[in-house]
Amino acid sequence: MSNQVPLAEVREVSKRFPGVLALDQVQLKLFQGEVLALVGENGAGKSTLMRILAGEETPDSGQVFLDGKAVSVDSVNTASRLGIALIHQELNLSDNLDIGANIFLGREPVRLGLIDRKRIYRESRKVMRKVGLTGSPAELVGSLSIGQQQLVEIARALSLRARVLIMDEPTSSLSQRETERLLQVVRELKAEGVGVLYISHRLGEVKKLADRVLVLRDGTNAGELSREEIDHDRMVKLMVGRDVSQFYRRIPYRPGRLLLEAHKLRSPTHPQYEISFSIRAGEIVGVAGLIGSGRTEMLNLLFGIDRPLAGKIWIQGQPLRLGRPFDAIQAGLALVPEDRKQQGLILTMALRRNLSLAGLRANQLSGGLLNKSQERQLAIEMIERLQIKTPGLDEVVEYLSGGTQQKVVLAKWLSLEPKVLLMDEPTRGIDVGAKEEIYGLMEELARDGVAILFSSSEMEELLGMSHRLLVMHEGRISGGLKSDEFSEEAVMQLATGLERDVPKSQSGSGTRGYQ
Amino acid sequence: MKKTLGISGLLLFVCVLTSLLNPDFLSPYNLQNTLRWTALFGIISLGVSFVIMTGGIDLSIGSVVGLTGSILPMLLIQHQFSTSTALLMVIVLALLIGLVHGLLITKLKLQPFVVTLCGLLFYRGYARYITDDQVRGFGTGFESLKQLTSGKPCALAVVALAIGGTLSIWLLMRLLWVRRNPDPEVDRRGLLLALTGSGTLALLGAIVWLGQIQPISGILVPMPFFIMMGLAVVAGIFLNHTIYGRYLLAVGRNEQAARYSGINTDRIVIMAYAICSVLTGIGGILFALDINSIQPSSHGNFYELYAIAAAVLGGCSLRGGEGSILGVVIGAAVMRVLYNSINLLGIPTQLEFAIIGGVILVGVVVDELVKRLVARSRARRQLQQAQF
Fold first, then answer.
1. Which of A349, A368, A412 sits opposite B244 (nearest CB)?
2. Which of A18, A20, A89, B340 is the most exposed place for a label (fewest CB within 10 A)?
3. Beta-carbon neighbour count of residue B220 at 10 Å?
4. Predicted confidence band of residue A504 (pLDDT cuts 50, 70, 90)
5. Is the dihedral of CA B117, B118, B119, B121 positive or negative?
6. Which listed CATH number (1.10.150, 1.20.1250, 1.10.287, 1.10.3470) goes with B2-152+222-347?
7. What totals of helices (H) and strands (E) does chain A contain, helices first?
8. Radius of gyration of chain A (CA)
9. Which residues, including other chains, have CB under 8 Å from residue B309's CB and lie 6 or more apart?
């Protein structure tokens, strides 16, 4: 195969975004009639690479070749003219239009100035048959299952005569049967000579489907596996395999009393699985998992943003009323949400007002009157305690830096002196200095007996900060790791779907035997 | 605050211009009428401003005014209810209307526009049905009840003296307090400016009252104005000094963040619609008493648009999360004074809507331009700070 001219080739492509080098001299070869799987951790550069191929991004340096000829894929239109199609994880279909209209969206055949519906349906039927979609092209896309919609996307790519088909996590929201069907379609396309670039977190699927695997890590080529070399462990090793920095100084953990216990929670997003675990005072528990593994959903469930379909939560032995953030706050829970600009803060409000918002009800004067002097005092205290850099108490938080904003969110919750602090990606998108300060705060809180449950996409942070890890996969806790079992490989194994027992809180009994 | 100053300037400008062009503007009869109508529209504008602050809208206001106006005389005359019972029933009805709006919008997640548009049609139709489309009124009776709108308990000069005086004393105390307890957030220049304004008002009131300067000393303040002032003070305290007012503004700016802060956002939104409808109900009672001849098919038509316009002029953003009670009251005054000027200055009344629409548009355009200017100068300042 290697002496053949590749169908598509990427040579020494680099791409820099503000603050990060997303791709560094990356190479990729895709041959006709093969499935090349592209794997890597979150942020390894997979999506940037495929966006470059599909003309959604332009590389800073490097070159793309098609059939051995240098081409410049400067726009999505160019890409589709060249026969490159990208199917996004989030489907780009108009569910108010029918299948035929979606397949021909933006390039409708016209007759006498009117849309040639007959031709659309005729052509659509052809490509639909290829992907195994039965039924009429006049059916509304909104009435199809997600799996069928995925097939419509592929049909659209085929009608564009795509020779290079890039699929980003195509099975992430499909059922088992739909997944099988999709894999079958991919195999058929391959047999017809289409080159498929397949991106997936599900290593099991990759093993079944791929002819070759290309692994990216931190924006560089980490390695390549041929058909016979593909196995779970080898892939994981290539995906991680780097030094954990000495950024963190984990303090030893002395087990305290049981603070939070979740028992058989079922989330509305993944109702087929139960979530059970517990945390003790002074414990920092990391929640690992790939994007879409249900970390945020679990934290929202605990805090009452979403109401679990079933299950119970106890805080310090007291049952918690589910689905009510206010009750959760009263019980001593706090959540630093994933999206600080939309969920954590009211950007156009003054810092002082943001700080006091969650505690207004607890600090009100009689008759619901605002306690403004207390509000002011609190703001002064928290700015001092967390070293928040702001020109004044009434600064609109929109104008503060990302790290400062995150500190404001933290201050808002710490002012309530929570017992259990939930943090969803607490250091996402903030600079190193602010990160370190937040780590310091987490340690300080844990020392004071607060239980911390934090999710993160950064392996180093998870391994460095946690006393214990919960790893999530497709909406369930696929396993837990004690600190002596920590390794990137172990986390990736669990995060990509290998099962393992959940270890209980380190003091032993994990049943409801608090005190 | 700046917005309120801007709209106050506009009000002053229109008043001065009109009185220069036609001195009849300052005649007791004309001023009393304008004050009364400002008060009536002010009440319903206050109501809708609460809904607008949550990012919603209430299109049913005119129809609720029509419905309450049709029902009140029926309760009093046909069904012989006592005055207080009848008033209470009308207000409870308005409250129920607001609660239904709020529940549909929060629990069923319907759009406020749609819910209240259906309300607009439904209440109008229902009012016409129960009255058999006949004109209703209170006849010549109910004199004490009618005092609610026709009563003129006090001279304008006295009111000016009272309001100006109270404000001045309060501001003075605050200034002295601030001098002793320095607080960098208190805008002392603003306080001084406000003190100057309120002092002038009190002084003018005193001069006119003591000197019996005609015709101004003959101007009496109608009852609805006092009712509106009372409601406005309560609304102002509610919005600016209670946790519910704070929640309202928080929900209006970012409902998601409010929910993540443990605020029961549904309850806040329902509350806003309830407040809006109750104030509309109170307004409806007063409008009915004032007009005394209620045509069910047209009474209150378009009032929601006047109310929304006044709220927007007064600084409420339809995106929610922003608003000032004083601004809304002044906004309502601008609307009424404009209307009055058109009549007094002999401008063809056919142009009425066009002029009011034009003035509002200019107002919001200027506001937007000022906002951009402020943002740009802020960016420039930050850039300079970054460079040095």
1. A368
2. A18
3. 20
4. very low
5. positive
6. 1.10.3470
7. 17, 22
8. 26
9. B331, B335, B356, B360
Q: Give Dmax (Cα) for chain B.
A: 79
Q: What does the pLDDT look like over A457-475, one tens digit per residue?
A: 878 788 888 999 999 988 8
Antiparallel, parallel or unpaired: β A164-168 and A84-87: parallel
* Å between A455 CA and nearest CA of chain B: 17
Compare CB distances from B253 to A346, A358, A394 and report the shortest one's residue. A346
Q: CB atoms < 10 A from the CB of A66, how many?
A: 20
Sign of CA dihedral B19, B20, B22, B27: positive
Which residues in chain B are closer than 8 Å to A346, comparing Cβ atoms? 250, 253-254, 257-258, 321
**Contact, A305 vs A343, CB < 8 A?**
no
Sole residue written with tokens 């949550």:
B54
Q: Which of A303, A329, A343 sits opposite B257 (nearest CB)?
A: A343
> A258-495, what's its fold?
Rossmann fold (3.40.50)
H helix or E strand, kind and range, residue B20? helix B2-21
pLDDT value of position A507 = 40
Six-digit token pair at B350?
A: 């056919």
Residue A193 structure tokens:
């000579």
Asked if B86 and B307 count as a contact pair (C-beta separation under 8 A), the reply is no
What residue segments make up the domains of chain A, in order of their start? 1-83+165-170+195-242, 258-495
Cis link prior to A426 (omega < 30° from 0)?
no
DSSP secondary structure string, B157-183?
HHHHHHHHHHHHHHHHHHHHHHHHS--
Task: Locate the DSSP E strands across A18-101.
Answer: 20-30, 35-39, 61-66, 69-71, 84-87
pTM metric for this prediction? 0.79
Ramachandran assignment for A475, one of left (phi > 0), alpha (psi -120 to 50 degrees), beta (any other): left
Q: How confident is the model at residue A9 (pLDDT cuts 50, 70, 90)?
A: very high
Write down the number of H helices and E strands in chain B. 15, 2
Q: Say whether A347 and B254 touch across the interface (CB within 8 A).
A: yes
Out of A328, A346, A361, the one facing B257 most closely (by C-beta) is A346
Q: Are A323 and A308 a contacting pair, CB within 8 Å?
A: yes
**Residues in chain A within 8 Å Cβ distance of B321:** 346, 348
Residue type, A149: Q
pLDDT at A248: 64
| Optimal mutation site among B53, B243, B317, interface A, most CBs of chain A within 10 A | B243
Q: In the predicted model, is pLDDT for residue B225 greater than 60?
A: yes
The H or E element spanning position B282 is: helix B265-291
Q: What are the residue ranges spanned by the domains of chain B?
A: 2-152+222-347, 153-221
Altogether, the residues listed in chain B come to a count of 388
Token pair, residue A342, equals 């939309």
Q: What is the pLDDT of residues B327-348, one digit of tens each?
A: 999 999 999 999 999 999 988 8
Q: Assign B242 to helix, strand or coil.
A: strand
Residue A346 near chain B (CB below 8 Å): yes
Domain A1-83+165-170+195-242 indexed as CATH 3.40.50.300: yes
Q: How far apart are CA B271 and CA B11, in angstroms?
A: 31
Measured over the CA atoms of residue A345, residue A284, residue A287 and residue A458, the dihedral's sign is positive
